[in-house]
Amino acid sequence: MFSDDPIVRVKDAQIFQGGKPILDNVNFSIQKGEFIYLIGRTGSGKTSLLKTLYADLPLQQGHIAISDFELHNIRKKDIPYLRRKLGIVFQDFQLFFDRTVTENLIFVLRATGWYDSAKMKKRIAEVLMQVGLGSVGNKMPHQLSGGEQQRIVVARALLNEPLLLLADEPTGNLDPEVAEEILKLFFDINKSGTAVLMATHNHAFLQTHPARVLQCYQGQVQDSITEGLSSTGY
Ligand SMILES: Nc1ncnc2c1ncn2[C@@H]1O[C@H](COP(=O)(O)OP(=O)(O)OP(=O)(O)O)[C@@H](O)[C@H]1O
Question: Residue 91 in contact with residue 169, Cβ under 8 Å?
Fold first, then answer.
């Protein structure tokens, strides 16, 4: 792959959920280092689209390429390798509450092929620094605030230096000020070169931190760059 190739290319894709089509004729690309919001009403298909990108929902029609992986014919055994290119911040992937922060992070590193203790320790220190929580490694998740826990979830997503962070409502359960801090964290991560695709209902973000927007609306995905957005879509 050439370095200026898009990280994600979606061409004429149809997104299915529970056997029924949710989004049709989906076309967009994501370039290295882009920041993109994904918006749309409840039930419009944001989560389904994100799940299709990380191969949790099968792609039944059209083409999606992520880095070197073609999703329409991806083999089951290649899915873990695809996911190493992606950092995932989803409500379904909570921290283990019976382990320390460091143990939570070691679990993911081991599961993704790391075994050298010194290297794991170094990488954990790096990601904790990156999310501004350098000193919490020995704490249990319940000893942290909601915003701090979310920072650890982001740190976990960064462990394998993903090309793209996929985030589904990462600020959903947080106070407005804490939500803003988490948003800033995503922008900081983005500045260091990681692309971000973030589903959100928080439209104030679009004003305070403008970026490209994809909008799920009436079974289609509209792109603020190529066609503008529907103001009635959210
Ligand atoms: N597991 C499932 N089985 C069947 N249908 C589902 C399933 N999950 C979601 N759906 C349906 O798929 C459609 C899209 O849902 P999706 O969760 O992708 O929307 P969303 O835009 O992320 O919504 P929200 O903003 O509420 O998170 C909805 O009609 C929903 O009811």
Answer: yes
Phi-psi region of 202 (alpha: psi -120 to 50; beta: other; left: phi over 0): beta
Which residue is closest in CA terms to ligand 1's atom 17? 47
The verdict on residue 145 lying in a domain is: yes
90 domain-assigned: no
Task: Determine contact, residues 185/178, Cβ cutoff 8 Å.
Answer: no
d(CA 41, CA 48): 13
Whether residue 55 lies inside any domain: the answer is no
Orientation angle between helical segments 146-158 and 101-111, nearest 10 degrees: 20
ipTM over 0.90: yes
Q: Is 46 in the pocket of ligand 1 (CB under 6 A)?
A: yes
Which structural domain range is residue 111 located in?
96-161
Q: What angle do CA 32, 154, 72 make, to 5 degrees?
A: 50
- The pTM for the full model equals 0.94
Mean pLDDT, residues 31-40 taken together: 97
Q: Whose CA is nearest to atom 28 of ligand 1?
A: 43
Pocket test for ligand 1, best of 15, 20, 22, 41 (most atoms within 8 A of CB): 22
